[in-house]
Amino acid sequence: MTAEELWDESGLTGDYEAWAFGGAPDKLARLVMDGTKTATCSSLALMHHDGEPIPKPGDLSVILDSAGDAVCIIRTTRVYVETFERVTEEHAFKEGEGDRSLEYWRRIHWEFFTEELGAVGLSFDENAELVCEEFQLAYVPAITQRAADVTPTVPKSP
């Protein structure tokens, strides 16, 4: 389903952006849909470099998978800028990845941002500013909701 088709189906109004999470878009989209992932972050320097606007509370986003298909819609609830070294355990937990610890978050985000910024000639360090965004699920397609409600029965071994 395209972003436009999902948007039309949702009945939501106004403007929206359509985008995929970096790194592992399918995995991260699934974490959003199951309610585990309620936050994300982006490099402020890269947003400026790419001319992207900083999100704001109330913004709506269609989340895409790695194939560009729309999977759900989120509504931004909170945005703040923080340096990499000052990101909290709470934020790391809300990002929902790995074991949800700050240590895990720092390790994977250090690698991700170093590579992402390096690709455009920018450097990354512990003082790099990140745009931290919290969100809530605003819409999941009905077919996805039904599929999630079906729990497969696994036979017990004798």
Brief rundown of the structure:
The chain has 158 residues and is of the alpha+beta class. Helices cover 35% and strands 24% of the residues.
- Taking strands numbered 1, 2, ... along the chain, how are they ordered across the largest sheet? 1-3-4-5-2
Biggest sheet, open or closed, and with what strands and sense?
5 strands, mixed
State the fourth-level CATH superfamily. Sulfate adenylyltransferase
- The CATH architecture assignment turns out to be Roll
At the first level of CATH, what is the class? Answer: Alpha Beta
Q: Averaging pLDDT over every residue, what do you get?
A: 91
Low-pLDDT regions: 146-158
Classification by helices and strands: alpha+beta
Could you tell me the radius of gyration in angstroms?
17 Å
Through-space gap between termini = 42 Å
Q: Specify the number of helices.
A: 6
